[in-house]
Specification:
Layout: E1 4-8, H1 12-24, E2 28-32, H2 35-45, E3 49-52, H3 61-68, E4 79-83, E5 98-100, H4 105-116
């Protein structure tokens, strides 16, 4: 069974790119375009990994991450930040990899494979 990855990003172009890339490498995907939608999808879909953008219009990735970590069912889901935002916000735990946009495809695939194993 393919590992499921939740993409949380407000940019439809980035979401489509990541979905195509991940599906081409035998991952299953689902997507959310906001913090609130991302939390709901994470609860419903129980993904094996979350790719998280930090800068979104309603509440940013930091709030998504903080709220996700409060929920027993999804708190241990690995997260990889994929964002154009600079340094990692302090709310993110050490060990959460950050990949800058534009995305280095090789680095992303390697990081996903390491975190989802």
């Amino acid at each position: 069974m393919a590992k499921k990855i939740l993409i949380v990003d407000d940019d439809p172009t980035i979401v489509a790119f990541l979905e195509d890339l991940l599906r081409d490498h035998d991952y299953s995907t689902c997507a959310a375009h906001s913090c609130a939608e991302g939390l709901e999808k994470a609860r419903q879909e129980k993904p094996d990994l979350v790719l998280l953008d930090m800068e979104m219009p309603d509440k940013g990735g930091t709030m998504f991450y903080a709220n996700m970590r409060k929920e027993t069912e999804i708190r241990d889901t690995p997260v990889v930040v994929v964002s154009g935002v600079g340094p990692r916000p302090p709310a993110l735990r050490k060990g959460v990899p950050t990949i800058s946009k534009p995305v280095d495809v090789s680095l992303l695939l390697t990081t996903v494979a390491e975190r989802i194993a």
